[in-house]
Amino acid sequence: METGIIVSLALYFILMIAIGLYAQRQSTSDSEGYLLAGRNLPPSVAALSAGASDMSGWLLLGLPGALYATGLVEAWIGIGLFVGALFNWLIVAPRLRAQTEKLGNALTIPEFLANRFPDKALALRVTSAVVIVAFFTVYTAAGLVGGGKLFATSFAPIVGDWGLSPYMAGILLTAGVVVAYTMIGGFLAVSLTDFVQGIIMLLALIIMPLVVMFGAGGEAGASLTEVQPGFLSLTEGLTFIGFLSAIAWGLGYFGQPHIIVRFMAIRSVPEVKNARWIGMGWMALCLAGALGVGLAGRAYVERNGMTLEDPETIFMLLAETLFHPLVTGFLLAALLAAIMSTISSQLLVSSSSLTEDFYRLFLRKDASERESVNVSRLFVLIVAIAAIVIASDPESEVLGLVSNAWAGFGAAFGPMILLSLTWDRMTGAGAVAGLITGAVVVFGWIAAGWSASFLGGPGVYEIIPGFIAALVAIIAVSKATQGSVAANPA
To answer: Which residues cross the membrane (predicted)?
Structure first.
């Protein structure tokens, strides 16, 4: 069995590196090529790259695990994310693609904000870049923790003789492959590997629930209603606050730099529409597959008298139980692909901010294109090393910070991005106020414990108050400062 898994993973890793080498020859001669693939991504690549970099291991671990443990009511988070992603494609994607090129050919989100609001350019560029780098270093660490735990759970016999713990070996191997193709090929490599990883994830999420329900032992998939009362209900135990907190996850899309930067790289504005439908179709199928893995997996475990201590490992359990080793290796590669696609995107966005919004802004304003590309590669490595250090403790709670970081990005950047693209009376002072207010409210809410319990009742997801407060701050401060500083029209 180990040989089949090793062969599948080796082929997967070789393919990722090969794509990095191909991309290196195509689009790394200047900063626009390295950081945005020359704004020349086909709609299909941009769509699956945005989806794969978004979903991460949550799609194959977190969502199936939540459904396995609680039932169909957990699907509301996926529904909220789907609606949020759709509006992100409808509202943000075409405008951001057009305006980032029009306003100084901005290569990063902080640079776009600086060009959009020149009166507060330095404050916006520095503050947003610091937030991006700090949060994405933690985000990257969270992904590496996922890779480490995957190896510790499924590949311990394989890596046990490497002189490292399986957990640490998993972190280093995951980071090594991701850093290699990201450093070599830049944004094009990240996008093309995301495209391939997105296809692998989709195939895995279609195949697995079908095999569970209709393959050998598939009779277990026909007894979902016997698991527990209300297991297939969308409203069982659901409160109004719980419903709002679940669907509010969709608000986070508008402020995720590693997702919206894909919109900046699409080949042309008219092609955004094609990318939208490809991306939303991929997301719908993947979410449906994740639902199937969680629900059918619970029935399979119950009917076969199996024990599963951690619900989030249901995908791995089914992969190892029901499939030939070569297919198991492919399915575990799909899980690794979900993790790696997000890590690579976060590394590159962090690197681009460090290069464009720090190095070229303060240290080397006249840096050549080749120098800038090489510095970007160096920053990819530096951020990766910092993330490895954070992730090295297997008891680290960094994974618990992912939902908080999603809320922090969504509240700090979301309202600012939305209004900067759609409201020409917004001012730079309003943008700064929204950025700071959203971040402060989110972290204040978390510190007060109101995400877990609010006024004696269920907790409220921190993105809700943070997003609302940032919107109010932007509108109020923009109206108060419109007379003193003219807004730069979008």
So the answer is: 6-24, 75-93, 122-147, 167-192, 199-217, 237-256, 277-301, 321-343, 374-392, 398-419, 431-453, 459-477
